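Batch job 17 of 40 flagged for manual review because the log was empty.
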Amino acid sequence: MTHLWMRHESRASERRAPLVPEDAAKLVAQGVTITVEESPQRAFPLTDYTAAGCRTAPAGSWADAPDDVFVVGLKELPAEPKELRHRHVYFGHAYKGQSGARELLGRFTAGGGALLDLEYLTDGAGRRLAAFGYWAGYVGAALAVLHRRGALTTPLTPLDKARLDALLAAGPGGHAHADATRAVDALVIGALGRSGRGACDALEAAGISPVRWDLAETRDLDRAALLDQDILVNTVLVTRPVPPFLRAEDLDDPRRRVSVVVDVTCDVTSECNVLPVYDEITDWEHPARALRGGERPLDVIAIDNLPSLLPVEASRAFSAELAPHLAGLGTGDPVWERCLDFFETAVHEDGMVRDHEFETEETHP
């Protein structure tokens, strides 16, 4: 039977879990063996997993686990071991030429393991089967509103949706933009995808009715309309280079009113980046980075684990989608065979998977 090994996340700010205790119990009842590593920051206590029938192991012990286990996680692997011999289920971000992609794939080929990338867990029509998109969009748009109001407290800390919604319902803080008291205009690109829907819901919770763009509007981009917003939220996933939505020359365009840009996709090191106006992601310590200052400021928010700010809600939603498929690991299930095909293609193509269509949404882990 399938043996899942849920690893501790090495990133200190990562409190989510790909599998929550309630869903783990259902898999155990089906005969799946689950080992859960100890983790000081995970939002779900280890005792809840043991009550669900899971085994436990020390943090990081997956490296010494039997060859036949499937190591399940969310974010990046630690630098050691250099050779990866297991089959890893997580968001690898290694198929679009991202920084470090070639090195990561090399670790798998050196050890004989494989990456089953959750971004590429799709049905036969290319629709993603498990994603954090809604919560990534929700949190990203919420941070944009709070930042523009001068109400964003740093460093960021995890909270629940009720608290976040209360902050959104409150007024501007003491360090708001000069015109923050007037009605705010916001544009969500990719509004019909999971992430876009989340972004729109957060803006509505803040009393802002956003302009909603999707495929039709991006095919023939109205750049003047894009620049004539206060907040821009990008949630669009692209798998091949396309003309950018926001260019370097747009930052100094006299028509620009945009003061806060949120890039939910964080494709900053990929040639598929549709917002090539910044060169590094932001983080919980410094969530916003200034691209322009003075009387016409422009800040970017590009945090690559946005849903971790709502770890419980995001984990429960994601686990509900992922868990039904985990029992099929190692059984020839087509969804996992497709993941393996993508990995093998990426290895053969030196870290690039091209010409694959997804539903329009972000890739956020």
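Reviewer: the log was empty due to a logging misconfiguration, but the result itself is present. The chain has a mean pLDDT of 93. Unflagging and moving on to job 18.
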